[in-house]
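A.,

Following up on our hallway conversation. Structure tokens first:
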């Protein structure tokens, strides 16, 4: 598994953004995937997780109702749709994969991490 996150950028408050996490290998559908973020001076935090089939998801309270995680196993890609972005969403966003049937809720046990993509929300 080799994960690559993309889709970050500079946006204004209230804007939307879609992040993508693509596995260059063929086996992402064996893994649950989660998004994390790390803002300057802060610890990395869980944002959202999705199980292997895509039927179950978990969200951090800070993004619940504003973000949607989804996956397209045929494309080996997991997405994070972020709406109503706030300045406090500014961070480097990372995706990670875990070999499990469960739905991730934290970084515990993540097997693979991708390089991050910067999201900056500023007017």
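Then the amino acids I'd put at each of the 123 positions:
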């Amino acid at each position: 598994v080799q994960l690559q996150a993309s889709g970050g950028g500079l946006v204004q408050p209230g804007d939307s953004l879609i992040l993508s996490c693509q596995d260059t290998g063929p086996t992402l559908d064996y893994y649950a995937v989660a998004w994390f973020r790390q803002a300057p001076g802060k610890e990395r935090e869980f944002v959202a997780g999705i199980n292997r089939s895509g039927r179950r998801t978990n969200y951090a309270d800070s993004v619940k109702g504003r973000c949607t995680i989804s996956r397209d196993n045929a494309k080996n890609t997991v997405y994070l749709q972020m709406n109503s972005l706030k300045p406090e969403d500014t961070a480097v966003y990372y995706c990670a994969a875990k070999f499990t049937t469960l739905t991730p809720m934290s970084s515990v046990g993540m097997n693979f991490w991708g390089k991050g993509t910067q999201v900056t929300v500023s007017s």
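The chain has a mean pLDDT of 95. Curious whether your intuition agrees with the design.

B.
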